Amino acid sequence: MAIWIILWFFMLFVAVPSVRAQSCMTDTCMNGGTCMDGMGGVVCTCAMGWTGQNCEDAMPDACSNTPCQNNGSCMPVMGMMMYECMCAAGFSGRDCEMDACGNPNRCHNGGTCMREDSGNMYECICPPGFDPGTDCSDSPCMPNPCQNGGQCTPQGNSYDCMCQNGATGNNCQNSANDPCMSNPCQNGGQCTPQGNSYDCTCQNGATGNNCQNSADDPCMPNPCQNGGQCTRQGNSYDCTCQNGATGNNCQNAANSSTTTIIIVVVVVVVVLIVVLVIVVVCIVKRSRRKRRGGRPSAVEGGHGQELTKKKKSNVYGIDNRQASTSESNVPSKEFPRDKLHMFGQIGSGSFAVVYKAKAEGIVRRGTNTTVAVKMLKESATPNDQSDFKKELQLYSMLDQHPNVLSMLGCCTDKDPMYIILEYVPHGNLQTYLRHIRTGMEPIYLNKAGFKEKKDLTPTEILTFASQVVRGMEYLASKQCIHRDLATRNILLGEGLICKVSDFGLARDVAEKSQYEMQSQGRVPVRWMAPESLLSNMYTSKSDVWSFGVLLWELVTLGSHPYPGMSSQKVINELKKGYRLPKPEHCSDDIYKVMVDCWQEKPEDRPDFAGLHTTIDDILADAAGYLEMGNLNQDEYVYLEPGQSSSSNESA
């Protein structure tokens, strides 16, 4: 290198002469060389970078070997012995060897690296949804924040969710069948979905399943007398009087004599019309017989048979009014609406409400009987209406049984339809058990009906179980599948007699021993057998599974089955073989009854007749099977009225 530098300095400051014999007049130096005549001949003084006698040879320089990489431009310096690289955009280093975009590509997830003019700088052009500031590493759609199958579309550093299947919400968090979509909870109540149903957490002292009773509701209790209906008007109310009553509070009953006269006149007119119709029909039939030669029809001749055989009505076809009356051979229990006098609402479900009422002459002529009237809400869906009609049909097919709630009558002539049930004063078994456990007084409590209790004996608990089994044994004998057997659907009558009730999900399977649910509706997941949860199949053995859970509720005084688990978690665990654990104070024999009810295969479970015998045998020595003094109050979950179960379950 030093020799090259000396040589370049020599060429720079000292001309490199080349002596030739020719004259400058006849021969010119090449490549810009200067010709001079000398003593020994002519001499060419070559320009920088050239040599030879005629300056015809180029001298080597520092850029000859193209040291600059990546399309960099080489510039000789210091007499061409040194060089400097002019790098292309995005490259740097002495020989332009440093790439701003790196190798491999700095930009991730398919991003394109763009080199910038100013030194070692670059910019990532990212696919949609990825952040250039992190070399395309991060995306607001990773992981997908959109729920219920929603599609995430990045919008800069944010995103948009495109919801599927009718879901709504910024993150599609509200599914199309979300029971809380149009909040059913009134008076500011908070709605929490529970599978296909919901729970309302009431605010500001409101009460009721839907928080419909505000703390300051002027219609609670009903100030309207003589069956008047109360309508709230701000902080006041209006009474809509019934049966001719008058006064602000309907306190003036209609004149009984006037009412009697009106009734008599109406009855006489109706009787006359009926007689007239019968006479006309007889005359027409007689004239037809004469035209046919006097031949009587099969029915008129007393054979008692129809000319055309009609197919027996299926219980699922009760939407057909004619089929449900003429074909099912169920005696009519139609009751006049004007004989019912509503007092006030005593219960509410997801699609029906229950009112306390007086019915004139429904049991005995001239006697008013307290009854419970069940009717659909105005918001009821077509499926709710269908289930209501099926419940009415099922009640009509049942005889009276001491452990099954009885239907006393119905009103089906127009909407809303009524199911008139016997009135039970002490509410449901679940609330009663929790009252015993916590000491809290239920709002329904009829203190005159039974003495205040602080605890339950093993005999009383097993007596409840025995009564429920007797009721279910009767329903099974009628080929009736209940599908919603739980302590909340066991009502307590006079003397705390258990009565199986709420046939909203029940089905008659007289034609076959199993029922396949055809549509998705409300289902009580924690009380359902695996074949019902997974295959929509219901048999009497499915009700046996539910009785096992009910027995667990009895032993734990109304505790919440599968505490700490969501409904989906319960289903997943049951598929793995999980069962409710044995309470510490419960004997092995009683727990074995529960486990027998929870056998995987329905055919391995006992029937209700067998359970009746087993429970009665245990009842003979009840004290040896339950140690209620050892009940751990903290081990089992109890939900306060109106409390959302989500507070005790994982999300």
TrEMBL record:
Ranges for domain EGF-like: 20-56, 59-97, 98-133, 137-173, 176-212, 215-251
Keywords noted in UniProt: ATP-binding, Calcium, Disulfide bond, EGF-like domain, Glycoprotein, Membrane, Nucleotide-binding, Repeat, Signal, Transmembrane, Transmembrane helix
GO BP term, example: cell surface receptor protein tyrosine kinase signaling pathway
Keyword Ubl conjugation: no
Disulfide-bonded cysteines: C46-C55, C68-C85, C87-C96, C107-C124, C163-C172, C202-C211, C241-C250
Transmembrane segments: 261-284
GO MF annotation terms: ATP binding; calcium ion binding; transmembrane receptor protein tyrosine kinase activity
Predominant location category: membrane
Chain spans, region Disordered: 292-332
UniProt-annotated binding residues for ATP: K374
GO cellular component: plasma membrane; receptor complex
Xref: PANTHER family: TYROSINE KINASE RECEPTOR CAD96CA (PTHR24416:SF621), TYROSINE-PROTEIN KINASE RECEPTOR (PTHR24416)
Protein name according to UniProt: Uncharacterized protein
Source organism of this protein record: Patiria miniata (Bat star)
